[in-house]
Amino acid sequence: MKSFFKISIPVVIHFIAVLWIGASVARAETPQTAHDPAQTSKIQITSDQLLYDREKFVAEFSGNVRAVQDDKVITAASLKIFHAQEGIQGETRNAAIEKIVASGNVVIHFDNRVAQAEQAVYINKTKVLILSGSPARVVSGSDTISGDQITYYQTNGRIEVESGQDRRVEAQFQTPSEQAP
User: Fold this and answer.
1) pLDDT at res. 87
2) Closest residue by Cα to residue 131 from 146, 141, 144, 143
3) Has residue 149 got a pLDDT over 90?
4) Which of these, 40, 38, 44, lies nearest to 15 by C-alpha position?
5) Would residue 15 be called left, alpha or beta, if left means φ above 0 and alpha means ψ between -120 and 50 degrees?
6) CA of 176: how far to CAs of 89, 114, 141, in Å?
7) How far apart are the first and last CA of the chain?
8) Stretch among 30-34, 81-85, 97-101, 129-133 having the lowest mean pLDDT
9) What does pTM read for this prediction?
10) Where are the domains of the chain?
11) Which residues contact residue 30 at a Cβ distance below 8 angstroms, ignoring those fewer than 6 apart?
């Protein structure tokens, strides 16, 4: 028998706190801050529905999903949070987030940038964000990059943009206008 159950949004406040503390723990820089709630920032997730499968360790928020943490905002049709079956570095299973997958008209506002894609996958262990869809796009001020897949390596700031069969990578950069002599 599958272990699925549906929960209304008001019932999940504690559950959401555990999930986001887990995500904050995963991005914490030192083990000392990982257990200190004062060092984590609050997240608020709203959606039409939440489905949690405790056998698969997956929580799926669906329908008009909006997740807000500090100045970061994610909107999507669906947001899935995958937990590790065992804790990372001694953490409990609930605190060990393996990956987060947002899909369906994904828009992410972060660091004065806006990313748009059909799907966004964040892999916690490697700190990699993969945007895919046709086209995936990141806008920073008047600069834009787009392609079928954009991979952002958070640890070193590297970005890879890949094209597909039907479209090429596109980039637009605003250069400062030249001053007259």
Assistant:
1) 52
2) 146
3) yes
4) 44
5) alpha
6) 47, 22, 13
7) 78
8) 30-34
9) 0.71
10) 1-68+83-96
11) none
